[in-house]
Design a protein that fits this description.
The complex is a heterodimer of chains A (282) and B (117).
Chain A (H helix, E strand, L loop, with lengths): L4 E8 L4 H7 L9 H4 L2 H11 L3 E6 L14 E4 L3 E4 L12 E2 L2 H13 L5 E3 L3 E2 L1 H10 L9 E7 L9 H16 L6 E7 L16 H13 L1 H4 L4 H8 L6 H9 L5 E12 L2 E10 L2
Parallel strand pairs in A: 1-9, 2-8, 2-9, 3-6, 4-7
Antiparallel strand pairs in A: 1-11, 3-8, 4-5, 10-11
Helix pairs in contact in A: 4-6, 6-10
Chain B lengths: L17 H6 L1 H9 L3 H9 L1 H8 L3 H9 L2 H6 L4 H10 L4 H9 L3 H10 L3
Helix pairs in contact in B: 2-7, 3-4, 8-9
Classes of the chains: A alpha/beta (282), B mainly alpha (117).
Chain lengths: 282, 117
């Protein structure tokens, strides 16, 4: 019986302004080129590893979830995920194909490991999911992969700790690789790196901390799991806590990884933009 | 940097926790509605009626009237929902950042560029 394999992880920022830049074809614009150009390397990598499925770890920003019911961790189990208007006029991406059978396997496995998830048979996906997909598969019509969204609460405190998110990733990795189907899975973690949109500290960026994270996430992710959420907010900014999604993605890969690609650029909009591709080392 | 004990009060930063989430519920619920174009139109057509429909308190109503993000945050607003409100007026996160820090947008953008140096 052949099993699903994880081809690696891609982690990238998901800044809304990217949506406008894509629509206006600003890839060669001097402001945008340092952000877009490194994706060529990732496109080459994707052409080589040929994933069938993308498990996308991101945070909803108030499209699918409101504060009436806000899950800490949620997994999509829908046949299709629709990207919709978020209120500020970024054209929506085409719907994304789901894989409910894989979703339910992941849910069974994760709940079996005591991650008590929310399951979503209907789920809209916002820019945190859709923009990384558009960056990774530009002009991809239809999308060449099916998808499973994993949503982490980064909106309303208390947030899950970095340690818990890393453990979720480890369990997600076991869940994927115990799926009895010959599938090649890429895990995508989105958001970050340091940024803060709200408060009088708006515009906060911490290059030193980001560069440390980009190194530690490769060589010693456990070091990042020792941060508390307030420490992470202080170091990475209020929205820099999206690093949690990176930690989930990193957790799926096991202890040893190889860095295939990395880029880092300040600023895109209010954010330090990070991009990293990792592969498992046996 | 080692993760030593960090203060829980972070200057210039509001942790959107249970206290804020309760305080801002009506305001955030109104802003959540702005995902839908017809709700944005309804707000613009009759702002008073739209705010009344969601039961905004006086501080929230006043902050909305002033289009002031700092006041909206103080009234319990969450930035992700407030961004949808700002979107009605074509304000992006740099306009909002400039407003909250009392800088011009150009100065705010320059500060971001300087963070990469």
């Amino acid at each position: 019986m052949s099993m699903a394999t994880i081809v690696g992880s891609i982690t990238t920022s998901h800044i809304p302004a990217i949506g406008k830049a894509l629509v206006r074809n600003l890839q060669e614009d001097p402001y945008w080129k340092p952000f877009f150009a490194p994706f060529a390397k990732v496109h080459e990598w994707l052409a080589r590893v040929k994933p069938d499925v993308a498990v996308v770890v991101s945070n909803d920003h108030g499209l699918n979830f409101f504060l009436d019911k806000l899950p800490t961790f949620a997994v999509g189990a829908a046949p299709e995920y629709v990207n919709a208007d978020e209120g500020w006029g970024i054209p929506s991406q085409l719907p994304f194909r789901g894989d409910p059978d894989l979703s339910w396997h992941l849910i069974e496995s994760l709940v079996g490991e005591e991650f008590d998830l929310t399951t979503c048979q209907e789920m809209q996906v916002d820019h945190g999911f859709a923009l990384p997909m558009a960056l990774l598969w530009p002009g991809g019509k239809p999308w060449p992969v099916s998808t499973v969204p994993v949503a982490v609460n980064t909106v309303q405190h208390p947030l899950p700790s970095p340690a818990r998110c890393y453990k979720l990733g480890q369990a997600l990795g076991r869940a994927i690789t115990s799926y009895e189907r010959d599938l090649r899975v890429v895990v995508i973690g989105t958001g970050g790196l340091s940024h803060q949109l709200d408060g009088t500290r708006a515009g906060f960026i911490n290059k030193e901390f980001d560069l440390m994270c980009l190194d530690k996430i490769v060589s010693d992710p456990q070091a990042l799991t020792r941060y508390t959420i307030p420490q992470l907010v202080e170091q990475a900014g209020a929205q820099g806590v999206e690093l949690l999604n990176w930690l989930v993605a990193r957790g799926t890969l096991g202890e040893r990884v190889e860095r295939v690609h990395q880029s880092y650029h300040i600023p895109i909009s209010n954010t330090a933009a990070g991009l990293q591709v990792l592969e498992k080392v046996a | 940097m080692s993760p030593a004990a960090a203060p829980h009060q972070i200057p210039g930063t509001i942790m959107f926790d249970g206290v804020q989430a309760q305080k801002g519920y009506a305001l955030n619920k109104m802003c959540y509605s702005f995902n839908a174009a017809e709700c944005r139109t309804a707000f613009l057509r009759d702002e008073d009626a739209y705010c009344a429909k969601f039961g905004l308190n006086e501080a929230q109503r006043s902050a909305v009237r002033h289009r002031n993000v700092t006041e909206l945050l103080d009234a319990g607003g969450n930035i992700y929902y407030l961004a949808k409100f700002a979107g009605i007026f074509n304000l992006d996160v740099q306009d909002i950042g400039a407003q909250q820090t009392g800088m011009s947008k150009d100065d705010f953008k320059a500060k971001l560029v300087a963070a990469g140096a």
